[in-house]
From TrEMBL:
GO terms for molecular function: hydrolase activity. Belongs to the enoyl-CoA hydratase/isomerase family. This is 3-hydroxyisobutyryl-CoA hydrolase. The gene is HIBCH. It catalyses: 3-hydroxy-2-methylpropanoyl-CoA + H2O = 3-hydroxy-2-methylpropanoate + CoA + H(+). Pathway: Amino-acid degradation; L-valine degradation. It comes from Balaenoptera acutorostrata. Transmembrane segments: none annotated.
Length: 338
């Protein structure tokens, strides 16, 4: 074989290899302009983020994170963008969490995505917390795990009667991350510890009553709320808060309903004030009430390791800054994954 022929074959091989790599990246991202996983739009006075994977309940993946983070930073510096709105497409979910299936498959294949995903997700959580523009999360529908991280650190969180909040990680061998070690211990009493260990689901106005949401709006008014926010002219934070408060005040759904856990809060504060899982379990057993035994049954189905990690995480996080908590949670995530 002559030198020229060998170069030609090598060139064809390298070209084929490059093509395969490009195709692989396209398959991994599954991202096209026709069906973008996340929509990033400037509308009126706002930057609008739409999580656009309704068939997957808007589950968050690395591709979406890598699109949202730089755009958030750009809008933060844009003098024409006065607020940022984030919402989910499809009506069923804001965001049901991180795309754990992809992360799990990557871990089995020993790929680096588990490191990248958690690191970049937590960087986004921190960017939301430190965002200099008012950040409004419309948490309509399922809001769990990673979806909580995209919303709870923002200045405003708007729930509807169809909101469904949970941190279900102890059931899958993980822990309530995305800053859960920061915001959960700061809820009333030991509510955060209870939610973290049991994965208890809060629905509708209870999401507001618990302190997860800052406002509650009837779902049929959500579109009008967004339109009114976008129509504001060079709004201040106070102008934005006034619009949200007006809609919140007009909301009638479940207006007189008491918080679902109200009658149990004294007991929850007592049971979950213990410093060990063994003592919490003993507290529930000794109480013996139907509610206590129901929670005991739930806890017994959870990963024992996850329960212990989570309790310690919340105890440590109660006195840390969000950045310190996210650093701790990144290290925990890697220990849990590998």
């Amino acid at each position: 074989m002559g030198l020229r022929e060998m170069w030609r074959l090598m060139s064809r091989f390298n070209s084929s290899k490059r093509t395969n790599i490009i195709l692989q990246h396209l398959r991994m991202s599954k991202h096209t302009d026709a069906a973008a996983e996340v929509l990033l739009e400037r509308k009126g006075c706002a930057g609008v983020i739409t999580l656009n994977r309704p068939k997957f309940l808007n589950a968050l993946n690395l591709s979406m994170i890598r699109q949202i983070y730089p755009q958030l930073k750009k809008w933060e510096q844009d003098p024409e963008a006065f607020l940022i709105i984030i919402k989910g497409a499809g009506g069923k979910a804001f965001c049901a969490g991180g795309d754990i299936r992809v992360i799990s498959e990557a871990r089995k294949a020993n790929q680096k995505i588990a490191q990248d995903f958690f690191r970049e997700e937590y960087m986004l959580n921190n960017a939301i917390d430190s965002c200099q523009k008012p950040y409004i999360a419309l948490i309509h529908g399922i809001t769990m795990g990673g979806g909580v991280g995209l919303s709870v650190h923002g200045q405003f969180r708007v729930a509807t009667e169809k909101s469904l909040f949970a941190m279900p990680e102890t059931a899958i061998g993980l822990f309530p991350d995305v800053g859960g070690g920061y915001f959960l211990p700061r809820l009333q009493g030991k509510l955060g510890c209870f939610l973290a260990l049991t994965g208890f689901r809060l629905k509708g106005r209870d999401v507001y009553a618990a302190g997860i949401a800052t406002h509650f709006v009837d779902s049929e008014k959500l579109g009008m709320l967004e339109e009114d926010l976008l129509a504001l002219k060079s709004p201040s934070k106070e102008n934005i808060a006034d619009v949200l408060e007006t809609y919140h005040a007009k909301s009638k759904i479940d207006q007189d309903k008491s918080f679902i856990l109200e009658e149990h809060m004294d007991k929850i504060n007592s049971w979950f004030s213990a410093n060990t899982m063994e003592q919490i379990i003993e507290n529930l057993q000794q109480d013996g009430s139907s509610f206590a035994l129901e929670q005991l049954k739930v806890i017994n189905k959870m990963s024992p390791t996850s329960l212990k990690i989570t309790l310690r995480q919340l105890m440590e996080g109660s006195s840390k800054t969000l950045q310190e908590v996210l650093t701790m949670e990144y290290r925990l995530s890697q220990a849990c994954m590998f």
